[in-house]
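Researcher: Dear colleague, please comment on this protein.
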Amino acid sequence: MACQSPEAARVVERRRREWADCTIRQVYRAAVAGARSALAKFFWAIRHLYCTSLMISVIIPALNERNGIVDTIIRAKAVLDGAQLTPYEIVVVDDGSNDGTGALAEEAGAKVVRHPHNIGYGRSLKDGIRAASFDTIVISDADGSYPMEAIPALIARFNQGFDMVVGARTGPNYRESMLKSPLRAVLKAIVEFTANREIPDINSGLRVFGRQVAISYFAHVSDLFSFTTSLTLAYMMNAKFVDYINIDYNERIGRSKVNLFRDSVRTLQYVLEACTYYNPLKIFVLLAMMCMTLALVSLIGGIVLQLVSAFVLGVGAILLSVLVIAMGLLAVLLKQIMNQRP
């Protein structure tokens, strides 16, 4: 056998190494592909261990609700257990009750947050949500008016990617007062104008949402009766996904704590504040349109009736509308500056 030259030997050695490297790469790729496939099959097989139902905190504010609190807790537990929505907790916020509501709630197995005196529906919900252990929040009332049986349907819709799902009240108990209906209609129209979408129920107290998202809006949400309305506006004005499911509204247990006129005025106040904060130009455009309408009527009246005062009023209203629009643009600029602040 003839001896190879040094150059030929180096070529042979290089080819041998290239062949070995190629073989190692092929084995490595096959091993990685096999491992990925095995891991995928493994995680699919055990998906039920980590894709269980959401961990839920049910928040129930209560003020002197000893006649309904225990039944409300029992119904909530039965529904959640029956639908296998576990683990869960029930948090009752005793808002300064003097009838033993908090003690009864503890005996029924709820976690109780106590206020030394009554401070408001919205503040109670805020404190309950902050005290919650889980991120998926369900809120309801302690008076038996909301059907706990609707919670699984709300949770199922929430799991489809919505940021908040609300139970829209229906039935004769929701329209029990001839005075409430027109007030609700007026507030509903104002809220829908502010949010620029249809809202079946502006202040339903049965809803599901995420804890962290809701807490981020607490600075602009009411501490009083208007909590649910202002929270709805906060979600909608920030382009969150909100959906509604019809629910039956039952007759409440005990006496209502709502003062119709006072709470309606406060709700209107928070709606206007929300519109001014989230979309200030909208409210200023509305005011400018009112000024322009006044200007048009005054100018026509001044020309037809030959009234100089009406004509002057019309010109003044036109100038006022321009000033209002300018203020609206300034409000938008201020909001943009505030949003840029850390």
